[in-house]
Amino acid sequence: MAVLEEQPTRSRRGRAFTLVALVLAAVNLRLAVTSVGPVLTEIRDGLGMSSTVAGLLTSVPVVCFATVGLLAPRLARRVGAAPVIAGGLVLLAAGLTARPFAGGPALFLLLSAVSLAGIALVNVLLPSIVKDHFPTQVGTVTGLYSVALNLGATAAAATTVPLTDGFGDWRLGLGCWALAALVALPPWLLLARQRTATRTAAASTPPVRVSRQPIAWALAVYFGMQSTSAYVIIGWLPQIYRDAGLSAELAGVLFATTSLLGVPLGMLLSAVAGKLRSQSGIAVTLGLFGIAGYSGLWADPAAAPWLWAVLLGIVNTAFPLVLTMIALRGSNPATVVRLSAFAQGVGYLIAIPGPILIGALHDATGGWRAPLAVMVVLMVPQITAGYFAGRNRQI
């Protein structure tokens, strides 16, 4: 009898430990990117970086996520999901430690790619961990780690400038974020010692050709469109506000507000979406908020900067929504790994041109109206793909 009572206790403790590991890993999934925007001017001045190269810098995340993320299912089948996630955190910590001390733009981009390659592996595999360990709480747990993700992004956006001022050097202000990856690493090293159910399922479940499934393509396009929007916001929103005459500090706080809104909204949205048969209505509504936010920036960024920040913060919750839909559309953890890799890999490939195009249009026109008009138009395919991705289907 005591043995029977002990087993559920161990199970609860194991789930709680896994949840802590998920949250710590999720904190790192955006701070490597959002810490750059508020000090982009200082980085460009310090490294002699042009606007075009800065546009490439904002595209490095999507390139890494599209290419490296596709390797995650194969690696997970060989060694298990937890060891791959631990390895991703090691890459992240190494890249974040070294890149601020790069001697030029090329090396800075390369070291950014190293850290972002680590994030790409973690990005793809976390939904499968959720499906494996929390199959009846997919929406709630996805919402929780989305909250952690947004908290990390918000902290980096809001405090990188003060940290830079305190250290007296933007390099130290960026480099200190490696500590977050080091804090997240130990739990995953412990989990990596276990033969996870995800690995077992991946090895025993016949491969699913997700590329032949219409719902997989709908998820991929939706992921690509929301990623384009997210990385344009991450890469250029602070600069848009600064070019409109706002201070660097206020631009950073406005950008942090956009990220911070994802904390309560992401948690609520994922929990609700996980209980619904269809998420199409949510996806369409978020797209309409995006049209309103980008249209406001197009008209005048300084006219109502807080309103535009709030509207864009709402549309950014498309990310936790699509993660929830990926976990819901797969019938088991192994399928979720493949679906996650496909949706994120193809989605990020779709998103690669976005930040580069926005930077090139800014250079060509000398302003932000043409780039922002493009972002308004891109909300239409996002709404369309979200409608189809949200329908009640499962692979």
Automatic annotation (TrEMBL):
Q: Which organism is it from?
A: Actinoplanes oblitus
The record's annotation in InterPro entries points to: MFS, MFS_Cyanate_Porter, MFS_dom, MFS_trans_sf
Keyword set, alphabetical order: Membrane, Transmembrane, Transmembrane helix
* Chief location: membrane
Q: Does the keyword Transmembrane apply?
A: yes
Q: Where are the transmembrane segments?
A: 48-72, 79-98, 104-126, 138-158, 170-191, 215-238, 250-269, 281-299, 305-328, 340-362, 368-389
Q: Where in the cell is it found?
A: Cell membrane
Q: State if Metal-binding is listed as a keyword.
A: no
Q: What is the lineage of its organism?
A: Bacteria, Bacillati, Actinomycetota, Actinomycetes, Micromonosporales
- Domain Major facilitator superfamily (MFS) profile spans what residues? 18-393
**PROSITE patterns the UniProt entry points to:** MFS
Per its UniProt entry, which superkingdom is the organism in? Bacteria
Q: What is this protein called?
A: MFS transporter
Q: Which Pfam families match?
A: MFS_1
**Gene3D superfamilies reported for this sequence:** MFS general substrate transporter like domains (1.20.1250.20)
What is this entry's stated membrane topology?
Answer: Multi-pass membrane protein
